[in-house]
Amino acid sequence: xxxxxxxxxxxxxxxxxxxxxxxxxxxxxxxxxxxxxxxxxxxxxxxxxxxxxxxxxxxxxxxxxxxxxxxxxxxxxxxxxxxxxxxxxxxxxxxxxxxxxxxxxxxxxxxxxxxxxxxxxxxxxxxxxxxxxxxxxxxxxxxxxxxxxxxxxxxxxxxxxxxxxxxxxxxxxxxxxxxxxxxxxxxxxxxxxxxxxxxxxxxxxxxxxxxxxxxxxxxxxxxxxxxxxxxxxxxxxxxxxxxxxxxxxxxxxxxxxxxxxxxxxxxxxxxxxxxxxxxxxxxxxxxxxxxxxxxxxxxxxxxxxxxxxxxxxxxxxxxxxxxxxxxxxx
Length: 330
Known about the structure:
Blueprint: E1 11-19, E2 24-27, E3 33-36, E4 44-46, H1 54-61, E5 65-74, E6 77-84, H2 98-111, H3 115-151, E7 159-160, H4 165-194, H5 203-213, H6 218-226, H7 235-248, H8 252-255, E8 261-265, E9 272-275, E10 277-279, E11 290-292, H9 293-312
Antiparallel strand pairs: 1-2, 1-5, 2-3, 3-4, 5-6, 7-8, 8-9, 10-11
């Protein structure tokens, strides 16, 4: 009998929680939670070991979770796994995640022979996932600028710029482009499978058709609400205006409050955070109307995930988790 050869390799894994302002959190060997960097480029430890209490701890400090990244290194190769934190997610099962929900919906449609529905659902899943990754990129750039500010001992209120601020603006631009692709893929899905006959190839056209024909349907009402530029609930209208402005009028660097990022402080804490102001309403960019780009775009992404979940509930097929069958192994 030949001796079996077993290859043994070592994998180094690091879990990093992305926080607002470019801060990071994680756990040490004792399992206690820490947040870094402080104004002295150190970490602050918190006596928390239950993951369910992490967010409450962050909120008590005055910051919030953006997402969770697992970085592993095997044979010199680095791999990253990203999970956006969605406070509106209704459970921990696979289908409660809108990204997985649309992927599984595509799988069900393709198994049932509905290739058109399956392909469109795949497009929606892909664009939602890439939007999430682009938000990760924005958070990474905030983290880099945070380290720059801390290690150069910049004072509160200091505005600064460097070569890498271009990467931050590029990530913001990419996020808006990707998330609006998801918007229009969802519009096509609604037009074909929820409100057939509306023929909307974009969310703007779908919205106009709904208003013109006075369509009465829960999804029609949802589209009208989020696309109403005069309403405080019209987040998709403002998202669309933002995207159209940076694509057709001027780059996002010109739309932002300043070409510089600013160092702020979290009240009553040793943490510095990075702030880059963008207009909450891009058509009304006046003083006092600016919000932090990372926090604002993260809220838009959460809204889009909620919208995608609502639309999926009216799909003609139900999402099912792919199963490996015996015949797949033959």
